[in-house]
Structures are given as C-alpha cells and as structure tokens.
Amino acid sequence: MMGDKYWNRELETLPHDELEAYQLVQLREHLQFAYSRSGYYKEAFDLHGVKPVDLNRLEDIRKFPFVNKQIERERQLKKPLLGDMAAVDEEDVVFVSASSGSTGIPTVSPFTKTDFDEYQDVQSRLFWAAGMRPKDRYVHALNFTLFVGGPDVIGAQNLGALCIWAGTVPSERLLFILKEFQPTIIWTTPSYAWYLGETARKQGIDPAKDLAIRTIIVAGEPGGSIEATREAIERLWDAKIVDFYGISDIFGACAGMCEERNGLHIAEDHILVEVINPATLEPVADGERGELVLTTLRKSARPMIRFRTGDIGTFDRQPCSCGRTHGRIHIAGRLDDMFIVSGVNVFPSDIEFVVRNMPELTGEYQVTLSNENYATKYKVSVERAEGNEESSEAIAVKVSERLKTRLGVRPSEVSVLEANVLPRATHKAKRIVDLREQNTPKEASVDHARA
Predict the structure, then answer these.
(1) For residue 420, what are the domain limits?
(2) Where would I find the AMP-dependent ligase C-terminal domain in this sequence (predicted)?
(3) Is 193 strand, coil or helix?
(4) How far apart are CA 69 and CA 107, in angstroms?
(5) Does the structure show a pLDDT above 50 at 321?
(6) Are residues 322 and 404 in the same domain?
C-alpha cells in the first residue's frame, strides 16, 4: 500500500456498473433490516405503501419516503435516547455524536462497533487520497465534544500517521503546537485556516516559512471548493488545501478531494446519492444543482433512508482522471443559507467567489439581508486590502458590477471597510446577518403566516 495512491485500489476503482450492482445488493438488505428492526421505518414504509421487496433497481429508492432533521428529532423525543429510527438495542451502540439544531435539542447519531470501524476505514481512505502517509505528523484541530468529526483522528492513526489530538484549543496554543511539533497536516475549517494564518503573522510567525504544514484539510464550509478562497489560503500557508464533506446524521467525513481536486469523491460503497429539486422533490440531471439526499447502505445502528441533507450541490458520475470511480459531489452551500433576490437563488459561496477573486480586498465579507417594499435586498460589506488607496466609491462600484455579473442581481449597497474590521471566525464563519423579520411590516408578517 505504501507505494499505491489508493487506500483500497480494488474498491476505489471498481467499474461503475459493478459498483451499482454492489449498491443494489446492499440497499436491498439495508431496507429489509430497517423495516424489520426500526419501529419508525416500518411505520413510515407502511404508511407510504411500500416494502423493501419493491426495490428492484436503484432508481426504485424514489418509491420510499424522505426523512429529514425534523423527523429525526421528533422520533428521538418519542423514544429517548436513540429514538425509534434506531435499528439496534442500546447495548450494541459503542459511540454517539450529537448536533444541535434550531431548537437546541441535540440529535444523536449512534454507531455500533462495526459501524464505527467501517466509518474510520473511510476516514483512512480519504486521508490517503489527500496525500497523508505514515511519515506525516497530523494535528487534529476539531472539536472532540460530541462532534462526529472528533474521532476521525483514529482514521489517521490507523493509516500510520503520528497524530496530535489538539482539539479546539485557543489559537495561541495551537500555534505553539504547530511550532513545537512541526506537523505536516492539519484539519480545520476554511475560515479558521485563514484566521489562524493571519494570527500567526501578527505574532511574527510566517506560516509558509516557520511552520511545516504542507496540507490543510478543511470541512464545514464551502470555501475549500471555491478556487479563489482555496488559493488565498494556500498562498498564506504555502500549503495545499483539500476539501472534505461530512454530515453528523451519517458519519464523519464521507467525501473528499483526490489529487485532481475537482469535486469530492463520496464513499458510494456506503452511501447512495440522489440530488433533487427541493421545491418539486423530483430528481435533477447529473451536474445540475439541487439538494443532496443520502441513503446509508451499511450503517446498522440507525439507518438513514433518503435523508434530506439541506446541502445544495451537484453530483458528477463522470470518470475522474485520478482513476477513482466513485462519484464526486460539489457543495454550493446550505439550503438554509440561500436567499432569493428578484427571483434569483443566491448562496454566500457565490458572493465569496467574487470577493476572494479581487486583490483589492482582504477576502473577508458579510451579507446583510433586509426587506424593502416587501422584497428581499442584500447589502455586502467588504474590507479594502492593506495598502490599497483606491477610493471606497471606486471599490464599491467594482464589487457591485462583479456581483451583478456573477449572480445576475446587484446588491442594494456595497460598504467598503478598512482591513481587519469585520469579525474573524474561530470555527465556522457567520456570513449572513438577516434583518428581514425586523423590518417587515407586522400586517405583512401576519398575512404571510396565514398563507
């Protein structure tokens, strides 16, 4: 394996027709397991008038009902701790992660020992594709408290890398670790990778010269797949950015970039991918943007059948020049973060693409949403780059024009601030300030609620 670019050559390069045949066998067994062992799935399938035997081809998954975060939360409350979506007894569960939603009620994601071991093997696969090898020193700078990505460090250990369990320590402490231990790979979010590099420079540390980081794995935000953002962080650190995708309801990272960095290969031996139009719930064509719907194929503690992720992206089944045959996802952002201006769907990642591509700016930005005459308007705040003496008016015009070209809709205002005015993120960046509820007339809010 040491000289091989694949963690599991046979599995990762399986011809796609054979991969789909494997998925079909796994899916049939998985549906039957869920139906026979989970109170929720038996009830849901029966109400929907479908049974596992109705699946004769992969496309037949469309006959089965969706699940989402709300259903997951409700069924957990119905039968605490694991909920009646679980398909095993609690004594078979060895690990749980949890994530909080808008209600603040944590949704638990359980794993049996087999689930957990297989999930860590996928982590090893993604780490290997990212270029990690046993000679590397890896610092795991993710939260260990109930976060599904916390245990992913075990996948790096199983690969043979020297692992430093840093967790979410203060930036000064993390920079101390990076200086003293000289790790070659780190995992964090794109916004924090930028913040940490800027913090290092303020402390007189040149990330590119004084530290040994050569690969930065990022996840949790679309920035790692936005070329301008990726290049800006790479220049700061003189390191390669590799984007991962994970979801707590399934398992940690389940997709990641290969050396080509043209999308994220998803572990199709564990997950069946659909992309749907979130309005019509109908499938979209390959390469067309829609909501990702994921179905587990092997996770027994709590199967997830047609889980609506709320993530907007595309799925590409075309062969990758790296030789891997598993399809690639491209994430644009969260459905929750999307806003509509004059009939146009806008994602923060589209705005970031513009801002990060302008050398006149620092790359930081914030979007403020408001209601004007019962219509959504968006204002963009940016920072001028240090040393840029161009007038604020001229910069604002450039930003406005480029946003109009990229998005099709112009911002109502562009505010140009001095460098280092906007808040920096130490985890996931909060780019949206939504004031629409505050400036919507009360009668409009009431009418909308009744509608």
Answers:
(1) 339-450
(2) 343-436
(3) helix
(4) 8
(5) yes
(6) no
Same domain? For 312 and 415 the reply is no
**Same-domain check for residues 270 and 153:** yes
Residue 285: CB atoms within 10 A of its CB come to 9
Residue 222 sits in a domain whose CATH number is 3.40.50.12780
Q: To which H or E segment does residue 185 belong?
A: strand 185-188
Provide mean pLDDT across the span 4-8: 95
Residue 120's pLDDT is 97
Q: For the chain, what is the domain count? A: 2
CATH number for the domain that contains residue 399: 3.30.300.30
Q: Domain boundary residue among 303, 334, 365?
A: 334
Helices (H), 83-170: 113-129, 153-159
Question: What's the pLDDT score for residue 450?
Answer: 31
pLDDT digits 0-9 by tens, 50-88: 999 999 999 999 999 999 999 999 999 999 999 999 999
Mind listing the pLDDT tens digit for each residue in 204-245? 999 999 999 999 999 988 889 888 889 999 999 999 999 999
Residues contacting residue 79 through CB under 8 Å, at least 6 positions apart: 39
What number is the average pLDDT over the span 196-207?
96
Instruction: Give every CB contact of residue 451 below 8 A, 6+ residues apart in sequence.
Output: none
Last residue of a domain, one of 334, 353, 382: 334
Cβ-in-10-Å burial (0-12, 13-18, 19+) of 180 comes to exposed
Which residue shows structure tokens 């780190």? 186
Statement to judge: residues 130 and 226 lie in one domain: yes
DSSP string for residues in 289-347: -EEEEEEESS--SS--SSEEEEEEEEEE-SPPTTS--S-EEEEEEEGGG-EEETTEEE-
Burial of 91 (0-12, 13-18, 19+ CB in 10 A): exposed
